[in-house]
């Protein structure tokens, strides 16, 4: 059976898509990441067999549009939906015929996760199917529990994994193969652990303000000493202000000891005061060296903001070993 999958929500679309691709390999179905732009294109929206609802959007207008579109989805499709998002549940309430498989961290979901554990190296959980389901081929799957490990930092990735694993089960993928595929998966610049020795460096520079908040929330449950934030500013001053405000709001809760901003507006890095809690540089290399000079045993350095740079990996290596 040829499948088209639609993945929706303000957060996690690319991560969930990458997980499904890693599981399915050469037999990956067509995956449509539904943004607020292509949601209006009904030919894209309705040309799917499976709809994965990760979370609601950040606009009541878009959520309202989604609610109207859902009314036109045929009964022979499948919804896989995050039951922990109340706005999303309200949107899906207009559905009268399409089967819904819910996932989340609450005990009422069809799919849930238990024994959740987050460290600086990985995220572990037990995938729990709590009732019988029937796959697209007609195979009956009875309730079961199975352990998973992700090489990604942050408990918010569990939602992406629950959705991807569930979709793969309905495609009759072997659960052992699914586990192996996800354990090996790393996604560049997505809470990627790029160094872990005396201190840890985590690269998460492809994000919006909503994912940034999720990152900060998840760091509360990870053991580390002090946090150093390296934040790459972009041309969007509004986005930069949101990042700065978010960092300031989390400063005490996350024990942030230094914030290092990278901005092309700075003319000469060497003329910038390096002793304050907030410092500015005009390039990645100097910023990383400053972060590493201030990192002690069990500290964490978080790279965030902006876009992923070509050659950033080399800059990290040079800063560590130069």
Automatic annotation (TrEMBL):
The keyword ATP-binding applies. SUPFAM superfamilies: MurD-like peptide ligases, catalytic domain (SSF53623), MurD-like peptide ligases, peptide-binding domain (SSF53244). The keyword Nucleotide-binding applies. Residues 67-167 form the Mur ligase central domain. Coiled coil: none annotated. It comes from the Bacteria. Gene3D superfamilies: Mur-like, catalytic domain. Keywords: ATP-binding, Ligase, Nucleotide-binding. GO terms for molecular function: acid-amino acid ligase activity; ATP binding. InterPro entries: Mur-like_cat_sf, Mur_ligase_C_dom_sf, Mur_ligase_cen, MurCDEF_CellWall_CoF430Synth. This is UDP-N-acetylmuramoyl-L-alanyl-D-glutamate--2,6-diaminopimelate ligase. It comes from Caldanaerobius fijiensis DSM 17918. The lineage of its organism: Bacteria, Bacillati, Bacillota, Clostridia, Thermoanaerobacterales.
